[in-house]
Amino acid sequence: MNALTLTNTAWSTNEHAFPGKGTMDEKLRFLLNYAILAPSLQNTQPWKFAVRGDEIRVLADTLRWMPVTDPDQRELYISVGCALTNLLVAATHFGFRYEVHYFPQDDDKLWVATVKFIDQNHTMTLADRELFYAIPQRHTNRQVYLNKAVSERDLQEIRNAVDDPNVSLFLSDSIEVKRRVDQLQVQADFTQFADPHYRDELAYWMNQGALNPSWLISRVGQMAVTYLNMGSSTTQKDAELLASAPLVGVLSTAENGHFHQVKAGEVFEHIALAGTGLRMGIQPMSQLLQVPALKAEVGALTSTPELEPQFIFRIGYAEPAAGYTPRHQLESVLA
Predict the structure, then answer these.
(1) Residue 106: which CATH number?
(2) Structural domain of residue 258, as residue ranges?
(3) Which of 101, 115, 205, 234 has a 20 to 30 A CA-CA distance from 181?
(4) How far apart are CA 331 and CA 335, in angstroms?
(5) Considering the domain boundaries, does residue 145 fall inside one?
(6) What pTM did the predictor assign?
(7) In angstroms, how far apart are the furthest CA atoms of the chain?
(8) 202 belongs to a structural domain
(9) Is the dihedral of CA 149, 151, 152, 156 positive or negative?
């Protein structure tokens, strides 16, 4: 991978450039401009797409996999699931009806899904429109969130974004839960940064231009604040609460296979898009599930500890995140 292929031009895709009178190939390629704006682990963007007639094949790209950080490829497949959601939201916006077939070949786990496009007779709803326009506005928001409780109406909107029987959402505004999550987050950071292999992997992706330096500053800063205040439990708790958003969310599934990981990614992106439309910020806290010793503790915090936690995040009202994370040019992710 060449860092020079990373640009911000993908964020300026204009819906009015959709080739309405073009070929099916041109139309489907245009939809992919929105798929590549999805979030991914450390912005690795581990996906590829192949346009074949009236189909788009969605593929996992293991060349953009982080084996130290994500040894079981859980987050690789979650990332691909996020891209799939963006693709389907864009397809709906432009009137397409479609069918999705997951893992169409049992012996090829990198072939995540085939989206077969049937026609362009779909009538778009207001909810469809809002999701679509949220795609280029969605950014991971690591700023301090506003000290404002989430309204019941907005909370219901977030819950409504989970429309998949394979995925369960746990949301909590409990101070005790948020405080414990903060403790686990710092513990996970210390564990990961103590591993030289993790640091080497992180340095590689930073050199590739995938990571914004502010991401690293945020993580190291939180560790420093917690470490320096160890002598004062009150100060430490204040620091933890300062970093907390109104809500902590955990997405869980009954199993931990790649199919369920993809579904968790789809649901998370739906939540992220819905939250963006509500002027809410979302910050994944992936490191909590990347450290095996802490993953069970995350599950124990939820109301369904028997399920497999796949994704954990903070969500709440926040000022818009500044800047864009760079994206690979579309041509470089076409198989």
Answers:
(1) 3.40.109.30
(2) 152-317
(3) 205
(4) 9
(5) no
(6) 0.91
(7) 67
(8) yes
(9) negative
